[in-house]
Amino acid sequence: MNKSLAAVREMIRISEPVIVEATARRRTQHRREQAIESGLCLAALMSVAATVAILTVLLWESLGFFKAVSLTDFLTDTLWTPLFDDAHYGILPLLAGTVVTSLVGLLVAIPVGTVSAIYLSEFASSRLRELIKPVLELLGAVPTVVYGYFALLVVTPALQKLWPDLPGFNMLGPGIVIGIMILPLVISLGEDAMRAVPMVLREGSYATGATRLQTAWRVVVPAATSGLVAAYVLGVSRAVGETMVVAIAAGQNPHLTWNPMEPAATITAYIVQVALGDLPHGSIGYQSIFAAGLILAVMTFTFNMLGHVMRKRFREVY
What we know:
This protein is mainly α. Helix content is 77%, strand content 0%. Helix 4 packs antiparallel against helix 6 (172-195) and helix 6 (172-195) runs antiparallel to helix 9 (225-240).
């Protein structure tokens, strides 16, 4: 009995350092996990704080603008000439330019991007997919100022061969280039959404005698609708906020038109135009860029909320 008790005591004596070491290792690991969690939380809070700070600045400076300009004139006046002696502050010309160039870009990006995503997801071999995707993603690394000069010096002259009366500055060329610019975003996110569709759905479709194209179009695309909508919404937000392409190639003459063949100014182009000038801080012209920026922020927020609602509406749970 005494020998057994001694053996147990000896085992406890030997195991004590091992237990202490394991406990210390668990505490160290727990502290590391807490540090990582705190870092991630801090990063998230910094993002929220930056968003709140930007909105606060926009609202604060816009309040000064709206003390001098009525909201009715801002939303209904068809002239935008805040830097002229006969000043008008109607946002409609800038809003029309932004909407038209964005629509032209989306008319290029959504069909081409969706078809390309279907091909990469359902038809391309893995080797070809690994080759094409990095090349497409390179488009996202090109500076937007290069896209602007590409629209001005290449796309617009090419369009003028089809429409000789097309002016050098117009909304059609920059809109097409914006569509090319956001293609990698739509293709990459759309292809990821389609590849996330369970293979059992495809196999079930093939079992009914459907072809590969019918399966892709009638099974995979509807099942990936929520992901595709997310890709489109991000594309819309990117197109609406694009600056350099429209500032260089669309002209900076704010007049109300819905014709993409005519020159016009967008909200972002006007902000660049005024920001590069020498307007005194606190003047009505200076504050007008914050009012225009506030409209841009509201548009982007609306698109994001619409996309969130549509993702929840069409989300498939497997």
